[in-house]
Amino acid sequence: MPDIVVKTEDVVKEYRMGSNVLRALDGINIEIERGEYISLMGPSGSGKSTLFNMIGALDRPTEGEVYIDGQNMSHLSQRQIAAFRCHRVGYIFQSYNLLNVRTAHGNVTLPMIFAGIPDKERNEKAEKLLDMVGLGDRMYHLPDELSGGQRQRVAIARALANDPSIVLADEPTANLDTITGREIIDLIKQLNLKQGVTVISATHDLKMLDVSDRIVDIRDGLVERIRNRDEIEIEVGEVGGHE
Amino acid sequence: MQQQTPIEEQIDLPFVESLRISFQSLKIRFGRSIITTAGITLGIAFLVSVWTNNEIELALQESGRSSAITNLDEAAEQGISTKDIWLIIMSLIVCVVGIANSMLMAVTERFREIGTMKCLGALDGFVVRLFLLESGFQGFAGALIGALIGLLGAVILGLKNYGLDLFFYFPLLPAQHENGAFQLGVLLLILFGCILGMILAIIGSSFPAWRAAKLPPAEAMRTEV
């Protein structure tokens, strides 16, 4: 029996802009298994980032339900949602979202502060994580003193601080050049393989295709199709041919 | 179907941790903090200088050494003139608006930071507490400097008008004048200025911080300034 970690049921999200109502998600149903690497693909405005926010409890759906680890997210208290964001999920964003007033090390320790981990333990763990993402020598630099790729590495280390079971990555390579983007994708894939972390990534970066187990194509707020890895490999060839 | 692992409740952080984070933030954002604090300083300096000036006038009127200008303008009046009341009210308004504005701006430009902290597991109350501490400290420091600047301004003006007599009749402590006007005294005035600056800074920042903390993180991070 598959171990479903994320399940959405008829998720609808509407945004009100004055008198207009924009339906960003129009009834999304997906199931994601533990340990999978899933890419949510689609053009800008397709609703993939909105879906990303729903899965990560960063926003509330207008209708429908999101279940994580079998828990209905709409039934959780504020404190439970905060604990969920702190312990269960690691977020990686397109614009890194590092706190500019904290060093790389300070950014990685922050989620551990919120989790109540003692000083010494969290400092050691932050050093270990930053070492792992290849920033052992730039630990005490502020984000402004780091390159885009390095900032994204800090964000990855921060996302892993509390050993989450899910890593959510929203366009993690969009602000990076091709080579750096590739490195970041490889790093995320390694986490997926070595630590068994479920990775859910909203992207329109084609480089993400060949590391994904499944691709969910989103268009106009609906799941257009879901492709498996074997189908993907053929299409990567096709895409390569067209470029 | 799915394995259900109960989600625990988020813990409260010890106060000293909030204090540490807010001081760290003030220290690293020192340049920006100074600008925000300057807004508070100016507002309180204006208020304290107008008010102290008024108290000096009162004290010296009582001693029969009121300045020529006051005698000409308000020969018939005793105590606080309507003009003075207006000036104090105006300076209070300038002070309230100035401080609220600088705190509002300082918080609004940090909406993304608030959203990010919530993503990492911060409770709404923790975010508000951080801003409360930061702004309270900024408010107090800014207001104290402002009050001293305002006092200095009023003293310089007083020296020009009354010469060294000023120090002889200086309204340092609270007193009741013969004409019924109440003198608050400069010491209390400074204290009042500091508390007012701190309260205004706290209100000015914690209200928008509270609003931002209540937003879902996705929305807070979307906010562009």
Outline the fold blueprint.
The complex is a heterodimer of chains A (243) and B (225).
Chain A lengths: L3 E14 L2 E14 L3 E5 L6 H8 L7 E6 L2 E2 L5 H11 E4 L11 H11 L4 H14 L15 H12 L6 E5 L7 H18 L2 E6 L10 E6 L2 E7 H14 L1
Parallel strand pairs in A: 3-8, 3-9, 6-7, 7-8
Antiparallel strand pairs in A: 1-2, 1-4, 4-5, 9-10
Helix pairs in contact in A: 3-4, 3-5, 4-5, 5-6
Chain B lengths: L14 H14 L1 H33 L5 H6 L8 H27 L2 H9 L4 H39 L2 H4 L6 E2 L5 E2 L2 H29 L2 H6 L3
Antiparallel strand pairs in B: 1-2
Helix pairs in contact in B: 1-6, 2-4, 2-6, 2-8, 4-8, 6-8
Strand order of the largest sheet of chain A: 6-7-8-3-9-10
H-E order of chain B: HHHHHHHEEHH
Largest interface: A-B, 44 and 36 residues
Q: How many β-strand stretches of chain A?
A: 10
What is the β-strand count of chain B? Answer: 2
Which percent bin holds the helix content of chain A? 25-40%
By CATH, the superfamily of one domain in chain A comes out as P-loop containing nucleotide triphosphate hydrolases
What spatial form of chain A do the alpha-carbon principal axes imply? globular
Mean of all residue-level pLDDT scores of chain A: 88
- The sequence of SSEs of chain A as H and E is EEEHEEHEHHHEHEEEH
Tell me the β content of chain B.
under 5%
N- to C-terminal distance of chain B: 45 Å
* Distance linking N and C termini of chain A: 40 Å
* Major beta-sheet overview of chain B: 2 strands, antiparallel
Q: In CATH terms, what is the fold-level topology of one domain in chain A?
A: Rossmann fold
